[in-house]
Design a protein that fits this description.
Layout (H helix, E strand, L loop, with lengths): L1 H19 L5 E5 L2 E5 L2 E5 L2 E3 L2 E5 H7 L7 E6 L4 E6 L18 E6 L3 E4 L2 E3 L4 E3 L2 E5 H8 L2 E5 L4 E5 L28 H4 L46 H7 L11 H14 L6 H15 L1 E2 L12 H6 L6 H10 L1 E2 L1 H15 L16
Parallel strand pairs: 2-14, 7-9, 15-16
Antiparallel strand pairs: 1-4, 1-8, 2-3, 4-5, 5-12, 6-7, 8-11, 9-10, 11-12, 13-14
Helix pairs in contact: 6-9, 7-10, 9-10
Length: 363
């Protein structure tokens, strides 16, 4: 009996010291971060504290809501405790995955909250930022049972819900999978053969000669048949044009009324009935270049969406980025690519947006 009581006292002590992180407030720097969940890009807003990223617990539940490692988050007001219940659905709320405009610096208070997973106490440190509790993604991953890997070169976190992860009361171990130097990764020829890219076939393109130049075409069979051009008439026909004009179109609307309306207005104003698919794609591209401004996008006005739409807009990529750009003609890379993709999908092309990060100018 004494051993049981002593163990309980020690456990409580671990919970308090593991959660408190000391009593001194610290500075937290926020930033939009892309996390891959089973290969699908999800944007989330963590805060960096002393070199570590801390994520809002409910945001983590939101990006995992449709996976096999979903978990519910329940607040115990009486005991000031959070209960994670694995295998239970998480209903995404209107305040989940909401991002402030631009990077934000805030004060983070060490959190005194107690955390349980399926009834078992967890010794995980946390910070409270503006009334929400923030945890390390990998700590919650070990508790709930999903793997978290870090790609140093891409500066990208990857969540794998199918990987076998031994759940426990969280230890501070290595969360990398495979060799840290990447020596166990098999690279294809495009990486290992330095001549690979130089030996790729070139696009067969014919253009009208500039004024004053003599048009000289090789007198070989099929010299213009490869591209379908008619020599001398000024028509430019490339492999890309053939690909787009030969595509089977399957127009697709989004699930958001305001976005469908914006896309319809755009198409009515800029497309004509005699345009082929390639021309529409190029007209849309040229419009974006000439009329969109690269700057911080206007924050979404949630009153534009129905209650059902508002509950899922933050989980729909790229739709949530398309609306601000088409409304106010300003945004950054995500907004440009997402709005352009939404228009091309409305035309009927199978277009996907792939999100990632490049190395910053600061290194």
């Amino acid at each position: 009996m004494r051993k049981t009581i002593a163990g309980a006292v020690l456990l409580c002590a671990c919970l308090l010291t593991g959660t408190a992180y000391g009593a001194t407030p610290v500075t937290a720097q926020g930033s939009n971060t892309v996390v891959l969940v089973n290969g699908t890009a999800q944007e989330i807003y963590p805060y960096n504290i002393d070199g570590n990223n801390y994520f809002k617990l409910r945001d983590m539940a939101a990006i995992l809501a449709s996976t096999s490692r979903n978990f519910a988050v329940e607040w115990d007001e009486v005991h000031s405790a959070i209960h994670l219940n694995t295998g239970k659905g998480y209903e995404i709320g209107e305040t989940d995955l909401q991002f402030p405009v631009g990077a934000k610096t805030v004060t983070a208070e060490p959190s005194q909250v107690l955390l349980y997973c399926d009834g078992e106490p967890l010794a995980i440190g946390a910070y409270n930022i503006e009334g929400n509790n923030y945890f390390k993604l990998r700590d919650i991953g070990e508790a709930v049972g999903f793997a978290v890997n870090w790609d140093e070169d891409a500066q990208l976190m990857q969540i794998d819900t199918d990987a076998l992860v031994e759940t426990s009361t969280v230890s501070q171990g290595s969360y990398m999978s495979g060799n840290a130097d990447g020596s166990d990764v098999e690279l294809d020829e495009s990486f290992t053969n330095p001549d690979y890219w130089n030996n790729l076939p070139q696009l067969d393109v014919e253009v009208e000669p500039e004024e004053g130049q003599k048009e000289e075409l090789p007198e070989t069979a099929g010299s213009s048949a490869a591209t379908g051009s008619t020599a001398g008439n000024g028509q430019i026909q490339t492999d890309v044009q053939q690909l787009l004009n030969g595509a089977v179109l399957q127009p697709k609307q989004t699930q958001f009324g305001i976005l469908n309306s914006l896309i319809t207005d755009f198409m009515v104003e800029n497309f004509t009935g005699d345009m082929d698919t390639y021309t529409k794609v190029k007209v849309a591209y040229d419009y974006f270049i000439k009329n969109m401004t690269y700057q911080t996008a206007t924050e979404l006005d949630m009153t534009m969406f129905s209650s059902e739409e508002a509950g899922v807009i933050w989980q729909c990529y790229p739709e949530r980025y398309a609306v601000p750009l088409l409304l106010d003609h300003k945004g950054v890379c995500n907004h440009y690519s997402s709005a352009y993709a939404a228009i091309l999908q409305a035309i009927g092309l199978d277009v996907q947006v792939v999100s990632g990060k490049t190395q910053s100018s600061a290194g």
